[in-house]
Sequence to fold (261 residues):
Amino acid sequence: MNDSTQNARPAPRNRLAEFGNHIYRSLFRYGRVPQDAEGQSYAVFNSLFLHIHPVKVSRHSLRFGYTLGLGVIATALFLVLTFTGIWLMFYYFPSASEAYNRMLDLRSAVDFGFVLRNVHKWGAELMVLVVILHMARVFFTGAYKPPREFNWLVGILLLLLTLGLSFTGYLLPWDQLAFWAITVGTSIAGYAPVLGPPLRRFLLGGDVVGQEALVRFYVLHVVILPGLLSIFLAVHFWRIRKDGGLSHPDDNDIPPKGGGR
Ligand code: HEM
Fold:
């Protein structure tokens, strides 16, 4: 390497800034803060992180009083539950002889284990409540009407998955309350016509609440139901965009202008 090439190389500090700039551009594509409407649209379309937002939103749907932030709170709770749930998996073991002791250990022998378990437990109860309130908000603002009826159905699935997560999580501490609640719950399910008995057998892996049931509830709780909920949440958000953003009062007065935003 000759002297002139060495002189052309940027100083280490500049190289660091250039590297930072490169990473930023690879994530956001649009290098500088856009100044005009076209640049702003371009920046939103091309960013993985920004494109969840529509390029334009109606002023009305930004009003806190309209949504009460309930959908966003439900999403945040799901993220908190995913994070604390993965953390709990480091300590929990789905075995009929171990599970209860692991829960006791979590309270006394693990740093912040008590907090971790309670954040997960209360977060789950709160999520059920918030999702029901969000559904009521959607109903009372008439946001289930065309073109949002498909998203209403996706929402029903999200509600069922949330309730399913709550139900399957209930058995995992393997205490008396959990054992008898699931015994009663699955017995009631077994009385449903046609689908009841096979559903009960599928959930319990047999005729009684035992080791098989614990493993099945565990796999449903940590893999299958959260996986399905994540997929349908993505569909839910995508659909909000395609339905032209959140509903607003003039929806019925303005004819749709061909397709989603
Ligand atoms: C895990 C559960 C759910 C999550 C995380 C969730 C999330 C969201 C979010 C973030 C929004 C936009 C902001 C807002 O309205 O607050 C929204 C809108 C919407 N949600 Fe949900 N949702 C869930 C369950 C439901 C349920 C149970 C229904 C109905 C059965 C539903 C139907 C809708 C509809 C129709 C919209 C569009 C509302 C509008 O245009 O005004 N969602 N949801």
Observations:
- Residues 68 and 157 are 22 Å apart (CA to CA).
- Residues 67, 70-72, 74-75, 78, 131, 134-135, 138, 141, 143-144, 148, 151-152, 155-156, 158-159, 162, 233, 236, 240, 246-247 surround protoporphyrin IX containing FE (CB under 6 Å).
- Residues 63-252 form a domain with the Cytochrome Bc1 Complex; Chain C fold (CATH 1.20.810.10).
- The mean pLDDT is 88.
